[in-house]
UniProtKB/TrEMBL annotation:
<dbReference type="GO" id="GO:0005886">
    <property type="term" value="C:plasma membrane"/>
</dbReference>
<dbReference type="InterPro" id="IPR002781">
    <property type="entry name" value="TM_pro_TauE-like"/>
</dbReference>
<dbReference type="Pfam" id="PF01925">
    <property type="entry name" value="TauE"/>
</dbReference>
<feature type="transmembrane region" description="Helical">
    <location>
        <begin position="83"/>
        <end position="104"/>
    </location>
</feature>
<feature type="transmembrane region" description="Helical">
    <location>
        <begin position="204"/>
        <end position="228"/>
    </location>
</feature>
<keyword id="KW-1003">Cell membrane</keyword>
<feature type="transmembrane region" description="Helical">
    <location>
        <begin position="44"/>
        <end position="71"/>
    </location>
</feature>
<keyword id="KW-1133">Transmembrane helix</keyword>
<feature type="transmembrane region" description="Helical">
    <location>
        <begin position="171"/>
        <end position="192"/>
    </location>
</feature>
<comment type="similarity">
    <text>Belongs to the 4-toluene sulfonate uptake permease (TSUP) (TC 2.A.102) family.</text>
</comment>
<protein>
    <recommendedName>
        <fullName>Probable membrane transporter protein</fullName>
    </recommendedName>
</protein>
<keyword id="KW-0812">Transmembrane</keyword>
<feature type="transmembrane region" description="Helical">
    <location>
        <begin position="116"/>
        <end position="139"/>
    </location>
</feature>
<feature type="transmembrane region" description="Helical">
    <location>
        <begin position="271"/>
        <end position="289"/>
    </location>
</feature>
<keyword id="KW-0472">Membrane</keyword>
<feature type="transmembrane region" description="Helical">
    <location>
        <begin position="12"/>
        <end position="38"/>
    </location>
</feature>
<dbReference type="InterPro" id="IPR051598">
    <property type="entry name" value="TSUP/Inactive_protease-like"/>
</dbReference>
């Protein structure tokens, strides 16, 4: 069954969009990422204009995050103090991101910049994740015990002034560190249509040194509010939010996030990370091909 998207200006298969939202919601529940880093490029592959894909995917991320946060709250896996600081930074970053988005629109380079940034970002992150996961799996097969990193925040973060105790995360650090992390994810959310979880989750573990049991839930909590603000900003400024497209994505993502949260409990973390890494690399390769490949003939003539 096909349905017309008024803002995108084209007709799409409803089932394909719902399934796409469900798959991204599944990843959201499994990994604590909003899923926008996959939603946006997949929508572009399907023919949705990049500006509409960026703005509409933020709405889908909000729905997936609601479902994921509720699941994590039942497990007491959300640090609301840390999340509140990150939300404040994320809202500020959203304002900065929309200025960047509008500037690139005026220059006529928004579509190229979105695609190129995704190739670089997904390629580097996917490569690092794949290398770490494969190394862990090979070490386990050799019978070696996995080396556990000491939960210690970065020395630069320790130098920041005004420390505060975040009890659920087990940290005593300056709120400025999570605030700046929130600003970064806010900029990414508006300008690229990503939730920022694929940046935030590693940063929360390796830079801030947060307790692992609250990382996913706190990430989703921040993503929820920042993507909601981003949707409002895009609706008012760029007018690129296609509500029909967003609703179709939401139908699938809300269900997928619940399934993903349960599925994550049954698989080893290193295999989950490897699976996500391969998906990310595949998307990066596909986008790189789209940027570089051109047909032999740009125009064709058909006899009527």
């Amino acid at each position: 069954m096909h349905i017309y998207l008024p803002i995108a200006g084209l007709s799409v298969n409803m089932l394909v969009i719902v399934l796409l939202g469900g798959g991204v919601g599944l990843l959201s529940g499994m990994f604590g990422v909003g899923g926008g880093f996959l939603t946006t490029p997949l929508l572009i592959f399907y023919g949705i204009p990049p500006t509409v894909a960026v703005a509409s995917s933020a709405t889908q991320i909000t729905g997936a995050s609601v479902s994921g946060v509720l699941a994590q709250m039942r497990r007491n896996g959300v640090d609301f103090q840390m999340g509140g600081v990150m939300v404040a930074g994320g809202i500020l970053g959203s304002g900065l991101g929309v200025l960047l988005f509008r500037l690139l629109e005026r220059l006529g380079q928004i579509d190229t910049v979105i695609s190129l940034t995704y190739v670089l970002m997904l390629g580097s992150i996917g490569g690092l994740m794949a290398r770490e996961s494969i190394a862990t799996i090979l070490a386990q097969r050799r019978g070696e015990k996995p080396r556990r990193m000491a939960r210690r925040h970065n020395p630069l973060i320790a130098m920041l002034p005004g420390r505060y105790r975040f009890y659920r995360s087990g940290l005593y650090i300056s709120p400025l560190a999570p605030f700046l992390l929130g600003v970064l994810t806010g900029v990414l959310t508006v300008s690229l249509g990503v939730g920022g979880g694929f940046v935030m989750v590693p940063a929360m573990i390796y830079l801030l040194g947060m307790a692992a049991q609250v990382v996913v839930g706190t990430s989703l909590f921040q993503i929820l509010f920042v993507t909601a603000a981003t949707t409002l900003i895009h609706a008012v400024t760029t007018e690129a939010v296609d509500i029909v497209l967003a609703l179709l994505l939401l139908v699938g993502s809300a269900t997928g996030a619940q399934i993903g949260s349960r599925f994550a409990m049954t698989m080893k973390p290193e295999y989950l990370r490897l699976m996500l890494a391969l998906i990310v690399l595949a998307v990066a390769v596909r986008m790189a091909i789209g940027l570089t490949w051109r047909p032999g003939e740009l125009y064709s003539v058909e006899l009527g």
